[in-house]
Amino acid sequence: MQNIKSSYIALLIVVLAAFNSSCEDALREEPRSFYSSNTFFESIEQANMAVIGVYDLLGTTNLYGQVVSTIFPCDTDISQIRGTGDDGSKRTVGHYTFHPSIAMFERAWRDYYFVIERANYAIDGISKMKMLTNGTEEEKRALEQHIGEAKFLRALVYFDLVRMWGDVPFKTAPTSANEDLNQTRTNRLVIYDQIISDLEYAKAKLPWASEKALDERVSQGAARGYLVRVLMGRAGYSLQLDGNITRPDDYLDYFKRAALEADTIIKSNEHLLNIDYEQVFRNYAQGTIEPMESMFEIAFSPMGINAENGGFISTYIGPKTSAESSYGRANAFINAMWAFYDSYSLDDARRQVAIADYEVKADDTRKYYTKSSDKKKIFPGKWRREWNASAPEYTNDTDVNWVLLRYSDVLLMYAEAINECRNDLPGELAMSDAFEAIRLVRQRVDLDPWDSSTTQNDFRDNIIKERAWELCYEGWRKWDLIRWNIMDEKIQEAAAAAIDVHSKYPYPAAENFVDGKHQLYPIPQREMDVNTGLGQQNPGYGS
């Protein structure tokens, strides 16, 4: 796999140690590497190293290596963490029995802010380079591209933070030694403005996928696509500190901007759907980079005895696979829901890709399940250990990338945004564009398009279902339900559907989820204890 991981990350970590958590005067020490933080940014290579250091942290176990990709998206109406007990970590988080002292929240929060600190350091350092002003046009473009990458990554992380925690500490400059570390919380709409600004810069400075190397670094299409996603999030509902779930009065303006941005991507002809839905996910398993549909991925590549650059994709969220099989072990900690499996049309080829109704035995054979034979054992199928290109080298870690944006997602967001502002469409957009986007998504799996007379409300309801069928187990269902303000409704619908499958179908979320509380995670208690500027806790978690 062509990968952004590099052997000089270790050097970068030494250089960046100056801005991590050790800012106390008593701990000041002269760096022992070839570079100091004051003189590091002198060449394009050094600027590149700083940006790769930002990418590198996204793949930690606490972020997209495991927690943010597989655990945080559960439980919803389409999936849940396997098991009904409270294990103090994954089941506690998935089943909505969590509290502010859960270590998983603390570690994810910490690593997110490490990413932001590295991004701020890179942006600040590169922006001050003399070469950015006095260099050749080629050098200037290279440095601006690096700034654009760092701003994209900062925007990605802040978008995660405001979706998960609401109003959070916000800073766009690297931490200094004498800075007051008691950061207050900033209104999420202010943070959204910066996220949008960062992505606007990134899209203007980054090359399209066809103009760059075949790797996992962000392209202009990805920056534009993520801007669409952020604008959709900005237009959506969120839980406020006063306990109310609201969306901004000007939400339609953001739907209009999202529609126009998606329209630009579509008309660029830089991105297209892979003709084979299953092949999209086989490509991830086999390390094939295919940027026409897969617009942005988090890179993994196990290296060294501890596989510290690997992820848990296909071992944590795929069908259960015996450790004695030739494919290697997959623990399958995530279960799919039978009712969701049944919601697919029998003609929809996506169902057998998205959901695996079997487990793999020691002799590589499959044991299949039905609703009558076992009410729990079906699994997300997009991340199968069987599909991995290489023989198992590590028990848990693989080099399977995690997808954050596909072109089909852009098409569906485009259709949704047009429908939401169908009575006041911007530019030359028309409802026919929305129906065409839906047609493309469904045509790939030989399904009929939607009736062009579909009303706005029916179109909206269909989008809710189509996004689940197309994008399930890619980490977005939970956040979609929250921005639509139907999380509680869908959990209760799933509970009723589960009982129809079996009277004792285990689905803890139905009893535990509290509307007006669990749309946000609690600020980690350790942060509340050490940072007196944070103020009140999120609704429902105490003072």
What does this structure look like?
With 543 residues, the chain is mostly helical. The protein has a domain at 1-190 and 509-543: Alpha Horseshoe (Serine Threonine Protein Phosphatase 5, Tetratricopeptide repeat). It has helices at residues 9-16, 44-58, 67-71, 90-94, 103-127, 131-134, 137-165, 188-205, 220-235, 251-268, 277-286, 338-343, 350-354, 407-420, 431-443, 456-471, 477-483, 487-501, 509-512, 525-530; strands at 79-81, 238-239, 245-246, 294-298, 334-336, 355-356, 358-360, 366-368, 379-380, 402-406. The strands form 5 sheets. A two-stranded antiparallel sheet has the order 1-5. It has a two-stranded antiparallel sheet with strand order 2-3. It has a two-stranded antiparallel sheet with strand order 4-10. Strand 7 (358-360) and strand 8 (366-368) form a beta hairpin. Helix 7 packs antiparallel against helix 8 (188-205), helix 14 packs antiparallel against helix 15 and helix 14 (407-420) packs antiparallel against helix 16 (456-471).
Order of helices and strands: HHHEHHHHHHEEHHEEHHEEEEEHHHHHHH
In the CATH hierarchy, the third-tier topology of the domain at 1-190 and 509-543 is known as: Serine Threonine Protein Phosphatase 5, Tetratricopeptide repeat
Any low-confidence stretches, pLDDT <50, length ≥5? Answer: 5-35
**Shape summary:** globular
CATH architecture annotation of the domain at 1-190 and 509-543: Alpha Horseshoe
How many whole angstroms does the radius of gyration measure?
23 Å
The count of β-strands is 10
N-end to C-end Cα span = 48 Å
Mean pLDDT over all positions:
91
What percentage of residues falls in helices of 4 or more residues? 40-55%
Across the major sheet, the strand order is 1-5
> Which structural class do you get from the secondary structure elements?
mainly alpha
Strand content: 5-15%
Could you give a short account of the major beta sheet? 2 strands, antiparallel
The level 1 CATH classification of the domain at 1-190 and 509-543 is Mainly Alpha
Q: Number of DSSP helices?
A: 20
